[in-house]
Amino acid sequence: MRVSKSVRFCAQFKDTLYYASVKALNRHRFYRGLSAVRQEDPELKDVVAYLDNLKNYEKIGVPTGAGTDSDDGFDLGRMTRLMQLLGNPHSKFQAVHVAGTKGKGSTAAFLSNILRAQGYSVGCYTSPHIHSIRERISVGRPSEPVTAKSLNLLFQRIKMTLDQAVENEDKRISHFEMLTAMAFKLFADENIDIAVVEAGLGGARDATNVLSSSTLAVSAITTIGEEHMAALGGSLESIAIAKSGIVKRNRPLVLGGPYLPEIESILRAKASSMGSPVVSASDSGNKSVIKGISDVCGKPCQTCDIVLEIENDLKLFIQLFNVNLRMLGPHQLQNAATATCAALCLRHQGWSISDGAIRTGLEHTELLGRSHFLTSEEAEAIGLAGAKILLDGAHTKESAKSLADTIQMTFPKACLVLVVAMASDKDHVSFAKELLLVRQLEAVVLTKVSIAGDNSRSTPSSLLKDSWILASKDVGVEICEIGLAKCSPFPKNQVDSTAKKQEHRTIALVESSYEDTVRIVNQMLRRRGRNQADNVVVVTGSLHIVSSVLGSLQR
């Protein structure tokens, strides 16, 4: 009977783990820092302490219906009253408002950099952050996060007003509402030319939706997916309705997509009711393509042609050939096209934005934790010298599929190991199914990290293991659990029709404490006996595990 390489690898690695468990290991200082929480700048200790006393839904989870335009939704009036106390700073600058299930942060980053490349002073507000709350706010011509000094000075200057607002609202103001208010106040004080604002949850009842038609230049909706389903009404249709709440009267709406036909109909109907012209980055006028993958400064980038010819509500046109995007994958090309459509809408309104600025902005966009490759020096620092390390905060079915497509496009012949940690309110099985279909996948290490500095939404690795085993049965991939006495193939009646189309593969599955994760991955790769350059390690499942890895590098 022929035994596959993957099965032999599982058996060999079981022995490796057994002997390692009875031997005291001298660990690199990196391991000791892995589970440490985010480290904020000491100058922001008063700001962070103040915000931490407010309700933080990123830590505790979002209530059912909170993002819907209903009696259960967040009280946008509370945010309006907070803005009034601060002198309505959001009325003092033009803005582009970006919502969507996935891609809104990348689209906001692309567009901000396009505008900065043209020479505009830009305020950009996004969420969440990796290391510091400063990352959520950038202001001026550089794309760097706001300085701790600037944020602290703003806070000290307006603290009495914030105190009054908290008292007036019976302490109901949230962490996100307060930070949004501070960002808008900073943008107004810095006299920016334009802001690019990412919605936090949904759209209609999100704190950022205090932006009005008088100052909104463009709204954009990137994608509609199933994340935060309960908070946004329980269906894709209700999610689309919630996100369409950012559409403002007579202001253009950019659609990213692609969407299901019934979802696009909801978005277009809302735009029609508001008299808003629609520009779609997914219609037949988008002829953008990925031409290939190349290496730039030791990191892969994708060379693309971005060709847009919009002829419906607005007539827009651009041709950019051989654009080198540092953000990888077809989904990032679509985000780039969506941002380009928004830039063209601004140009149609009279903003000076050259094709060269669009190219420069797109090519210089990078985001922490999204298509984020570590340098060879960073890989060596964490004990994985020679391996390619990709950090990506994917945590939904859709983003997992995008990540899978990116891996297979960029590393078609690599040996792939995944390191996964997830929040408890995500669809673990659907996430796992997409990644189990990656042909190069040989092992998965499941672990646990804190979520937004708290463990209440963390998922134990044992529960993740159950989800991956269930997902493996659905897609017909055999799981070999490291540490069990044997690995048994799944009965044929548990494999569906999709599985029959898959080649037979066996994937090693390991539960690990976070402190031991890198050591175990390193042992796996060495045991595999391949050239380290052929090995790819992808850390994914949430931005919080990405944050932990990057935080250890900072230390």
TrEMBL record:
<dbReference type="GO" id="GO:0046872">
    <property type="term" value="F:metal ion binding"/>
</dbReference>
<dbReference type="GO" id="GO:0004326">
    <property type="term" value="F:tetrahydrofolylpolyglutamate synthase activity"/>
</dbReference>
<dbReference type="Pfam" id="PF08245">
    <property type="entry name" value="Mur_ligase_M"/>
</dbReference>
<dbReference type="InterPro" id="IPR036615">
    <property type="entry name" value="Mur_ligase_C_dom_sf"/>
</dbReference>
<feature type="domain" description="Mur ligase central">
    <location>
        <begin position="98"/>
        <end position="343"/>
    </location>
</feature>
<keyword id="KW-0436">Ligase</keyword>
<comment type="similarity">
    <text>Belongs to the folylpolyglutamate synthase family.</text>
</comment>
<dbReference type="InterPro" id="IPR013221">
    <property type="entry name" value="Mur_ligase_cen"/>
</dbReference>
<dbReference type="InterPro" id="IPR001645">
    <property type="entry name" value="Folylpolyglutamate_synth"/>
</dbReference>
<dbReference type="GO" id="GO:0008841">
    <property type="term" value="F:dihydrofolate synthase activity"/>
</dbReference>
<keyword id="KW-0479">Metal-binding</keyword>
<keyword id="KW-0547">Nucleotide-binding</keyword>
<dbReference type="GO" id="GO:0005524">
    <property type="term" value="F:ATP binding"/>
</dbReference>
<keyword id="KW-0067">ATP-binding</keyword>
<keyword id="KW-0460">Magnesium</keyword>
<dbReference type="InterPro" id="IPR018109">
    <property type="entry name" value="Folylpolyglutamate_synth_CS"/>
</dbReference>
<dbReference type="InterPro" id="IPR036565">
    <property type="entry name" value="Mur-like_cat_sf"/>
</dbReference>
<protein>
    <submittedName>
        <fullName>Dihydrofolate synthetase</fullName>
    </submittedName>
</protein>
<dbReference type="GO" id="GO:0005737">
    <property type="term" value="C:cytoplasm"/>
</dbReference>
